[in-house]
Amino acid sequence: MEHSKLSLARRLKLQQLAIFEKVVETGSILAASRALHMTQPAVSKSVHELEAQFGESLFTRGKRGVKLTEFGVLLQRHAQSLLADLRFLADDVNAWSNGVSGQVVVGVLISASARLLPRAVVRMHETAPNVIVTVRVGSNDVLFPELARGVVDVVVGLLPDNQAEGTSGNLTHVPLYDETLCAVVARDHPLAGDPSIDPHQLENMAWIVPTQESAAWRSADAFFEAAGLVAPKRLVESVSILTNLELLLESSMVALMPHAVAEQFVRSGLLSILPLRLASSFGKVGYTLYAERTPTAATQRLLQTLHEVGESVRLELIANSPSTETR
């Protein structure tokens, strides 16, 4: 059976796609029915109708729920884009109506999750309190494809390969400030109060470093090279802030962290930045947009506050650079 744009427009219902997407998200017909406040038979009927439209099975059923078939994966990819466009329409209509509502879905990396993004959201809500901000945490290799599909509106964090401002492929990168890496320990660590640490004192310690597939891995390598250290043999690879913080508080480990992130925990009295006097570059922190999509009014509000907060973070990092730091 051949399909065309018009034939699909006549037969498909957006509600069917929304139900299909919820089943994929929750992993079962029952869980989707609860999330949608629908009966289980109604959800099953919608899925069966969608399968009948294409003459293909969308799911395989098992004891633990449902799993997408190969055709189901194909349909999900397009359903995400269609539903994202519907959300953009709703946001634009809401913004047109009152100018201070809508939704922004933000993909965030560790480099922006502790200071840049929280401050920007707080500042935006001072003038647009009804904008809903949904945060998705991940790495660039996950978030950039979601950005292209419209699942997220903007990705905030470390830009790939020190990307300067401009468009690369279908992505537009906008740097806000240059970030550096620093070594941190728990506030009560034996080295926390040492005003002059030789990097070689850290050689045999256990380290927490970024995962190898993350954009920060190359910066970690450069850090050890600048310090004259070989890559540690005892290490944990993690980009989870909460996991890294707990590891530091429960052990004598040393962690590599973006300076702006570490400063937040220093102010909270949890961590101490080791005074290694190293200005090891972490890269450029900023945001990335999909070049072929115009940001919604709500997204534009967030971008404006990202620029404002980014400038203040840039000045703070200059003031707390290794040459002036006394911790």
Automatic annotation (TrEMBL):
The keyword Transcription regulation applies. Gene3D superfamilies: 3.40.190.290, Winged helix-like DNA-binding domain superfamily/Winged helix DNA-binding domain (1.10.10.10). Residues 12-69 form the HTH lysR-type domain. The keyword Mitochondrion does not apply. GO terms for molecular function: DNA binding. It comes from the Bacteria. This is DNA-binding transcriptional LysR family regulator.
